[in-house]
Amino acid sequence: MTVIKHEHLQKMAGALDEVIEAAEGYKAYLKTRMEGHKGISEDVPPMPMLRRQLGNVERFIDTADNQMVEQLINMVNAIETLELAERGEFV
């Protein structure tokens, strides 16, 4: 695990963790709602809406957990490299 030394990046990482955690909670909620409608045909409301919403939150989680985390790691690496170069420790 990367240690983040910069305050702003630490806050961004913490906020991203909270967003992902909240989205996972929402996903669990939707799955529970779907379980409550077991036995209802898949194309009878509210099942299509719940499935669509589940897909939305899964894509949201995927974006946050992959693309946004990757961008954060890139920012952390870039600032660390810059600071090492400024101290003459990295060429």
Describe the 3D structure.
77% of the residues lie in helices and 0% in strands. It has helices at 7-36, 47-86. Helix 1 (7-36) packs antiparallel against helix 2. The radius of gyration is 20 Å and the shape is rod-shaped.
> Uncertain regions: pLDDT < 50 for 5+ in a row?
none
SS content category: mainly alpha
Largest sheet: none
Strand content: under 5%
Order of helices and strands: HH
- Shape, per Cα inertia axes: rod-shaped
The tally of helices reads: 2
Radius of gyration, whole Å: 20 Å
Task: Give the rounded overall mean pLDDT.
Answer: 93
Determine the fraction of residues in helical runs and give it as a percent range. Answer: over 70%
Number of strands: 0
**What's the end-to-end separation, in Å?**
24 Å
How many separate domains? Answer: 1
Write the layout of secondary structure elements.
Blueprint: H1 7-36, H2 47-86
Question: How would you summarize what this structure contains?
Answer:
The protein has 91 residues and is mainly alpha-helical.
Which features characterize this protein?
mainly alpha; single chain; 2 helices; 91 residues
